[in-house]
Amino acid sequence: MINKVVEGPEVAISDIQDGATIMLGGFGLCGIPENCITALVKKGTKNLTCISNNAGVDDFGIGLMLKTKQVKKMISSYVGENEEFERQLLSGELEVELIPQGTLATRCLAAGYGMPAIFTPAGIGTEVAKGKEVRNFKGKDYLMEYAFDADFAIVKAWKGDTAGNLIFKSTSRNFNPIMAMAGKITIAEVEILVEAGELDPDQIHTPGVYVHRIFEGKNYEKRIEQRTVRSKK
């Protein structure tokens, strides 16, 4: 069995070059590949196209790469928690493609399944549909959206093994599994790394066949975007 373990995030992302298109798993700040993002900031890779559900916050997640102006284009569903993102968008420094969340997920799935495109009713009659092909099926219009073409997918799991099998925990099982399927090269960072054969096969969410590199991460902060508590009475 192939051992896919690499020494750490710096090695895992070492061949991500300027101009690459990368997927980054996570939902908000939950389940994001914190170690790989830090390594990308340190490496200084620029002109990146980032595909992610959101753009992090100003001082964490993808927001760190926005701060250092490493991101050329952001393809996302929700971007409302990042002031630097807003500033770059309004100033014309950052190219942005906003996508309905379901379409974002399905374009990831299409890439993983080897499908060139999908048809969805989401976006019909809106700015999302401008310049795109529309087809009618049984009297209803559908928008054609292409599968993503990402050079790398970077995901974060709770537990993985040396063969690349992954288990995600709770909310972090969001965009991570479908992005893991979709990248030409998939990099996984995990909280716990075990030997191949130690994971219960029935619990595995992403089979190792999709994962090319894996390492055990460190010092996870697991921040919460908006902490809401009940007011004192």
Automatic annotation (TrEMBL):
SMART domains: CoA_trans
Family matches, as SUPFAM superfamilies: NagB/RpiA/CoA transferase-like (SSF100950)
Record bears the keyword Transferase: yes
Pfam families: CoA_trans
Keyword Repeat on entry: no
Gene3D superfamilies: Glutaconate Coenzyme A-transferase
This protein's UniProt keywords: Transferase
GO terms for MF: transferase activity
Highest taxon of source: Bacteria
Family membership: Belongs to the 3-oxoacid CoA-transferase subunit A family.
Entry protein name: CoA transferase subunit A
Taxonomic source organism: Pedobacter flavus
Lineage: Bacteria, Pseudomonadati, Bacteroidota, Sphingobacteriia, Sphingobacteriales
